[in-house]
Amino acid sequence: MGEFEFVRVESDPENPAVAVIRLDRPKMNALNAQVQGEIAAAAARVAGDDAVRAVVLYGGERVFAAGADVKEMAESDYADMATRSRALQDSFTAVARIPKPVIAAVTGYALGGGCELALCADFRVAADDAKLGQPEILLGIIPGAGGTQRLPRLVGPARAKDIIYTGRMVEADEALRIGLVDDTVPTADVYPTAVAMAARYANGPALALRAAKEAVDSGIDADLGTGLEIERLQFAGLFATEDQQTGMRSFIEHGPGQAQFT
Ligand code: CO8
Question: Are residues 143 and 199 in the same domain?
């Protein structure tokens, strides 16, 4: 499906409808400006490819990503970062807005921007020895790619503040307990587990999955009335789709859960 320098977009050989966005920038997948741009381009590619029905974000067997490239970032001043920070956030938002199920497969470290990237997925599968965290405070800064916003939405404001204020590493078992990750498995099982999860969604009705994701994600940022209105419009819109006809006809003729969506 194509390559950039540090990010590969591949389809899983056994599940061709599952695209894998694979970070590959040794040693720690440090996210420099180029990687951020490539992540945005990879997100746009999988979002626009109808053959892709679900996505896995993966950094390899050793590390997910140890954050922004501190060596590059150290050269920035306020004027520079005031400009670059928008592109930086936009590249992660492009991942969060991929209108398909997205699963982060987290091995090793997911720190700083690495943790923030994982937060842009719908679900996180982590190695049982993975370490997540927002260590920016230890560098005299704060998270800048969504950590102060997406982390509290996931684990609650007090837990997020503790993680952000201390910069401590969150071990996988705590991450699971507080909902920062959704499953923990041995390192060797992280990727196959994430792909298996993605493959489950890949057979679903693409437009309904897209509508569900948009309704949940947009609704969480809105008041209840607005969220319900978003849901109502998405719900009604699905009655213009072939999948709705397939799903309901299949139920009537064959019973629940038998529909084959294309
Ligand atoms: N940036 C640049 N280089 C890094 C980074 C990084 N974030 N992390 C590790 N490296 C490099 C090290 O400098 C080292 O390089 P070298 O071998 O040339 O000396 C190599 O990777 C291996 O690292 P260590 O020797 O430190 O390996 P350890 O196994 O001892 O430790 C750790 C691994 C725990 C991951 C440790 O390297 C570490 O703490 N790294 C920094 C983590 C960090 O502070 N991350 C937050 C960065 S700030 C940030 O992400 C801001 C987010 C907002 C923007 C996000 C945009 C994408």
Answer: yes
**56 pairs with which residues across the strands?**
20, 103
29 lines ligand 1 (CB under 6 A): no
* 3-state DSSP assignment of residue 102: strand
Distance between CA atoms of 201 and 192, rounded to whole angstroms? 14
Residue 109 CA: which ligand 1 atom is closest?
Answer: 35
CATH number of the structural domain spanning residue 243:
1.10.12.10
- Asked whether residue 260 is domain-assigned, the answer is no
Task: Given the cut 0.95, state whether the ipTM is greater than it.
Answer: yes
| Each residue's pLDDT tens digit, 175-232 | 999 999 999 999 999 999 999 999 999 999 999 999 999 999 999 999 999 999 999 9
Could you tell me which of 31, 17, 18 has the C-alpha nearest to residue 7?
31
Ligand 1 contact, 133 CB (< 6 A): no
Q: Answer whether residue 1 is part of any domain.
A: no
Nearest atom (ligand 1) to Cα of 134: 46
Other C-beta atoms lying within 10 Å of the C-beta of residue 191: 21
**Residue 231 structural domain:** 206-254
Token output for 128: 């049982």
